[in-house]
Specification:
CATH class of the largest domain in chain A: Alpha Beta
CATH topology of the largest domain in chain A: Aldehyde Oxidoreductase, domain 4
Largest interface: A-B, 36 and 39 residues
Shape of chain B: globular
Number of strands of chain A: 28
CATH superfamily of the domain at 223-326 in chain B: CO dehydrogenase flavoprotein, C-terminal domain
Mean pLDDT of chain A: 97
Shape of chain A: globular
Number of helices of chain A: 16
CATH architecture of the largest domain in chain A: 2-Layer Sandwich
Strand content of chain A: 15-25%
Oligomer: heterodimer
Number of strands of chain B: 12
Helix content of chain B: 25-40%
Radius of gyration of chain A: 26 Å
Bound molecules: flavin-adenine dinucleotide, iron/sulfur cluster
Helix content of chain A: 10-25%
Distance between the termini of chain A: 71 Å
Structural class of chain A: alpha+beta
Order of helices and strands of chain B: EHEHEEEHHHHHHEEEEEEEHHH
CATH topology of the domain at 223-326 in chain B: Enolase-like, domain 1
Strand content of chain B: 15-25%
CATH superfamily of the largest domain in chain A: Aldehyde oxidase/xanthine dehydrogenase, molybdopterin binding domain
Largest sheet of chain A: 7 strands, mixed
Strand order of the largest sheet of chain B: 4-5-8-6-7
CATH architecture of the domain at 223-326 in chain B: 2-Layer Sandwich
Low-confidence stretches of chain A: none
Chain lengths: 699, 331
């Protein structure tokens, strides 16, 4: 029995608060006696701190303390070496936080940070990823727990024997997540308990990490995360800000607010690793793939291993008898890379979907048709049928909407004045996963209901989606449902990441609502007038017992670009995506996720690039004036559609997740379109005008 | 941020007098550049002299033609001024191609001309920069220099001037009215900024404490046919990687007069006198425009990452002039 809230377009529940500025973010809560923390980054890449002179900073009026490895409260080793902050003099990368200044005003804290004198003993460093770096090694597994390498058949023989082959190497630079709201925390210690208002994508992990680091019982830590100004993966795990704020608050025995600066978001909070990817494809004369090989090279830090699963996308996207994927890694003197929207799939699909386009040219088959011909009936990895696989449906629907039919495959054959015009396509996929979560549902005597779950709304509309799901599961109009999220005192739930927020949380919410309805049926007389009835459930057993089946969302991305024949400027005339992602709970917020992902893909293809200066060992363009992110004027026309898809092997709500798939195929669609427009194949992103300038010899 | 004092002077004379006595003071206009640099620790004034309330916010049409633009006229107001749109479209275009709407609402005429370079090393106190700290070295010379100069740089500094407005004003032969401790003075826009040479920390030819009070545009009927072409790495809200301001006056198809200035190529807005010479008196053609650009760019010395700026500047020179020529009505 449903009332039909799911599938309807509701505005965000907190929309009004957000646009009127009353929604509070992590460092906006009024707190009595609050002080301000300012993180101090290291000025060297690799070395040791030999001396810290805090006196000049402490002499500044308003400065209360300077914390550093010599005086900061001791932390237990904790879950992750990156969080073991201010504990030792070692410096692993430029920009690593080595001190925190606490003051009664933000301005004094900032100036104090400048006045802290730090001497280092610095050694030589290596910060540039190269394909022949002597430090390359084979990690034991890649994120989160995939095999490092896979092989089936005999790739070398299969490749050598094929009539049509392509072999190319693609490069992507470091990309920085850059959420609008920086990583930020207000930390308060009260009677040995720690309360943090924190900007993150999952309070459960923050609470666990703080409890471990500060050796507290978990009940003594509370994490409140009502509103989050984005994360794009970089807040998927606790990061420096929350630990530094808690350390500082303990040291000065007052509440501390600490927000990272924009510059500090370039490194210490993670970034998408640069990649070097070689893809080789072979096919028969009909374009049927006979051999696929995808070799990925990425970087990690000397602090810990982060092995991005770049080639994993290729393992299940297209099939061939001879297949191989490999991952190699090198430890550089850089910050640890981390998740960024569709880690693995996003850079991996850029390479594979570009390679498919090159193969389409080589074999003389339309790139949409090539993908349709190579759509596998069963998952090449698991050998089992997909729970649903609608890549072909997306391609066909997208081709129809975009007007792909009759496309002339000839590159550089269309011109509109000074502009060369081209179109491109790419496929995409993203795993549909779910994690265990708990939720509670309460019936009140006035006929209203309360849903409680420690889910996190990072701006996606998750709060609203769960509210809709709950209303249907309770069989009541949504106006009678209230929902509370974003507080670690609520039943614990998984991270807002991996496109599994809604799938995981809605599962728990639905089960809690079902349990509540059962209970109400068993309660003669209904909810007592002065009481309430609550059911709390966890999906841990159910999620664990779910059979391992290939579950994926799919997409088809189409782009039309124009390239200025003289200056090499690239503009995207239109971008269109069609997705098969299970059930769509809220068309308004779903569309925002999909076009947001696609916009970020345009950004990846054309604009973003962390430019590293190897002498200094950091990215020189570390603000939003110099690290360009696609702006509104760069997105002229963008459309997202989805197929009606029912898949009963997913989760009770039947959703696959839509946060990431929008970015996955976009960069390849654009670069394929640039090739179609110009005849030039750019294989290192981003495609900026200097890579295309001079297509026509002028005058 | 270094603690600083704040002063609001009653008039121009007081403003200049206060600054003359305070070696660490700076004028505050829109603050869109200065305040950013203060937060970054790049500029550390101990006194801000706020010029926003001085009576310098008018645009006056001058009796014999021409305009006087007050130093605190906001970029957005100037771009929207009917006389600017009618008589100096190159100026309106340059202003609107810069920054964002919000910034233009604050940014002033004077502040825009004196904004500092966007060289990323200049903006990062952890890196060597002769402009910020004379004698410390130039990290950009052999570093990431895609956005920096191809003309007239020195081994001590390869920075560019970032302003779009200044490029248009250079083409228009604008005159900057300044009030120095020694008294008022007129400075041609083309002589306002310096080459980096041995002293990249000295960016203008103004005396210490000089206050820009206005910018004067000469009567220049030809400027009604003028254009600003800006190329950047995204469609909006980015500094130029190449720009050209052009005024073209044709007699039939013969170039009677032409004004050409380049942005993003040098430490100052680059008036392309040599290209103008090449063009003047000749029958216009795109080929001629290309030859003129080549003459101007013959002395370009690209750095490791910015060789593309030479063909880019050439391409936009040809395009800007050709489009203007095509717009010229038959006599
Ligand atoms: C993200 C971003 C993007 C931008 N993009 C562009 C762009 O594309 N193109 C472009 O041209 N600009 C761009 N700008 C720069 C912007 O145009 C300048 O910051 C602005 O014009 C400066 O004017 P202001 O009044 O705010 O100056 P302020 O910041 O107040 O002052 C700048 C300097 O001028 C001095 N000063 C100010 N007024 C006077 C005066 N009357 N006499 C003497 N000295 C004075 C100050 O002491 C200071 O040194 C951008 C800025 C930002 C932040
Ligand atoms: S180019 Fe000029 S501004 Fe840039 S680092 Fe060198 S000296 Fe400094």
């Amino acid at each position: 029995m449903t009332t039909g809230a799911v599938g309807r377009a509701y505005p965000r529940l907190e929309g009004r608060e957000k646009v009127t500025g009353t929604a509070r973010y992590a460092v906006e809560y009024p707190v009595d006696g609050v002080t301000y923390g300012w993180a101090v980054p290291s000025a060297v890449v690799r070395g040791r701190i030999t001396r810290i002179d805090a006196a000049p900073a402490l002499a500044l009026p308003g400065v209360l303390a300077v914390l550093h490895h010599g005086n900061a409260p001791r932390l237990a080793p904790g879950p992750e070496p990156d969080l073991w902050l201010l504990q030792e003099p070692a410096v692993h990368y430029r920009g690593q936080f080595v001190a925190v200044v606490v003051a009664t005003s933000l301005e004094a804290a900032r100036e104090g940070a400048r006045l802290v004198q730090i001497d280092y003993d610095a050694g030589p460093h290596s910060t540039v990823l190269t394909a022949d770096h002597p430090g390359l090694y084979r990690p034991d597994q890649v994120n989160p727990s995939y095999p490092t390498d896979t092989a089936e058949g005999d790739f070398d023989a299969g490749y050598a024997a094929a009539p049509v082959r392509m072999d190319a190497t693609y490069r992507t630079p470091a990309y920085h997540n850059n959420p609008m709201e920086p990583h930020a925390t207000t930390a308060q210690w009260r009677d040995g308990r720690l309360l943090v208002h924190d900007s993150n994508q999952g309070a459960v992990a923050v609470k666990a990490a703080l409890a471990e680091l500060f050796e507290l019982p978990r009940e003594s830590v509370r994490v409140i995360t009502q509103h989050v100004g984005g994360g794009f993966g970089s807040k998927g795990y606790p990061k420096a800000a929350v630990v530094l704020a808690a350390l500082a608050a303990r040291q000065v025995d007052r509440p501390v607010r600490l927000a990272l600066t924009r510059q500090q978001l370039f490194g210490p909070v993670g970034y998408r690793t640069p990649t070097i990817q070689r893809v080789r494809l072979a096919a028969d004369a009909d374009g049927r793939l006979t051999a696929i090989c995808h070799d990925s090279i990425t970087q990690t830090s000397t602090i810990r291993e982060f092995a991005e699963q770049v080639a994993v996308y290729t393992r299940s996207m297209y099939a061939a008898p001879h297949r191989r994927t490999t991952h190699r890694l090198v430890r550089l003197d850089v910050p640890t890379p981390f998740w960024m929207r569709a880690p693995g799939e996003c850079p991996g699909a850029y390479a594979l979907e570009s390679a498919m386009d090159e193969l389409a040219s080589a074999v003389g088959i339309d790139p949409v048709e090539l993908r349709i011909r190579n759509d596998p009936a069963v998952d090449p990895e698991l050998g089992r049928p997909f729970t649903s696989r609608n890549l072909v449906g997306c391609l066909r629907d997208g081709a129809r909407r975009f007007g792909w039919a009759d496309r002339d495959p000839e590159p550089r054959a269309r011109r509109d004045g000074r502009w060369l015009i081209g179109t491109g396509v790419a496929g995409s996929s993203y795993p549909a996963r779910a994690r265990a979560s708990a939720a509670a549902a309460t019936a009140r005597p006035d006929g209203r209901f309360l849903i409680r779950i420690d889910a996190t709304d990072i701006g996606t509309g998750a709060r609203t989606a769960l509210w809709q799901v709950a209303a249907d599961a309770l069989g009541v109009p949504p106006e009678r449902v209230e929902i509370q999220i974003g507080d670690s005192d609520l039943p614990p739930a998984g991270v807002a990441g991996g496109s599994m927020g809604t799938s995981s949380w809605s599962w728990a919410v639905i089960r809690a609502c079902e349990a509540l309805r059962d209970r109400l049926r068993e309660t003669p007389g209904g909810v007592p007038p002065d009481g309430e009835v609550t059911a709390e459930v966890s999906t841990a057993d159910e999620v664990r017992e779910q059979p391992a089946l290939p579950r994926y969302a799919y997409g088809a991305h189409f782009a039309e670009v124009r390239v200025d024949v003289d200056t090499g400027e690239v503009r995207v005339n239109r971008m269109l995506g069609v997705f098969a992602a299970g059930r769509v709970v809220n068309p308004t917020t779903a569309r925002s996720q999909l076009i947001g992902g696609m916009t970020m893909g345009i950004s990846m293809a054309l604009h973003e690039e962390g430019v590293l200066d190897e002498r200094y060992g950091d990215w020189v363009n570390h603000d939003l004036a110099t690290y360009h992110i696609t702006g509104c004027a760069d997105v002229e026309r963008i459309e997202a559609y989805w197929l009606d898809e029912q898949d009963s092997e997913l989760n009770p709500a039947g959703v696959k997740g839509i946060g990431e798939i929008g970015i996955v195929g976009t960069a390849a669609a654009i670069t394929n379109a640039v090739h179609h427009a110009t005849g030039v194949r750019i294989r290192d992103l981003p495609i900026r005008l200097d890579k295309l300038i001079g297509l026509s010899p002028l005058a | 941020m270094r603690p600083f004092r704040y002063h609001r002077p009653a008039d121009v004379a007081e403003a200049v007098a206060v600054l003359a006595d305070e070696p660490q003071a700076a004028y505050l206009a829109g603050g869109t550049n200065l305040v950013d640099l203060m937060k970054l620790g790049v500029q550390r004034p101990d006194l801000l002299v706020d010029v926003n309330r001085l009576p310098l916010d008018a645009v006056e049409e001058l009796p014999g033609g021409g305009l006087r633009i007050g130093a605190t006229v906001r970029n957005s107001d100037l771009a929207a001024h009917p006389a600017v749109r009618r008589d100096y479209p190159v100026l309106a275009r340059a202003l609107l191609a810069a920054a964002s709407g919000q910034l233009r609402n604050l940014a002033t005429t004077g502040g825009n001309l004196l904004q500092r370079t966007r060289c990323v090393y200049f903006q990062d106190t952890g890196k060597a920069c002769n402009k910020r700290e004379p004698g410390s070295g130039c990290a950009a010379r052999h570093g990431q220099n895609r956005d920096l100069a191809v003309l007239d740089w020195s081994d001590l500094c390869v920075a560019t001037h970032p302003s779009d407005l200044a490029v248009a004003l250079a083409a228009l032969d604008a005159v900057v009215e300044v009030h120095e401790p020694a008294g008022p003075r007129d400075v041609p826009l083309a002589a306002l900024h310096r080459s980096p040479g041995e002293h990249p920390e000295r960016e203008t030819t103004l005396a210490r404490g000089a206050l820009i009070t206005a910018v004067r545009l000469p009567h220049l009927p030809a400027a009604r046919r003028s254009a600003y072409l800006k190329v950047r790495d995204r469609a909006s809200f980015a500094f130029a990687v190449g720009s050209v301001a052009a005024v073209l006056d044709l007699d039939g198809d013969v170039v009677r007069d032409v004004r050409l200035a380049y942005g993003a190529v040098a430490h100052r807005p680059w008036r392309a006198y040599r290209a103008e010479e090449e063009l003047r008196g000749r029958a216009f053609s795109p080929q001629l425009a290309a030859r003129a650009a080549d003459a101007e760019l013959a002395e370009a010395r690209p750095l490791r990452h910015n060789g593309f700026k030479v063909p880019l500047t050439r391409a936009i020179t040809v395009r800007a002039l050709t489009e203007l020529a095509e717009r010229t009505p038959a006599p």
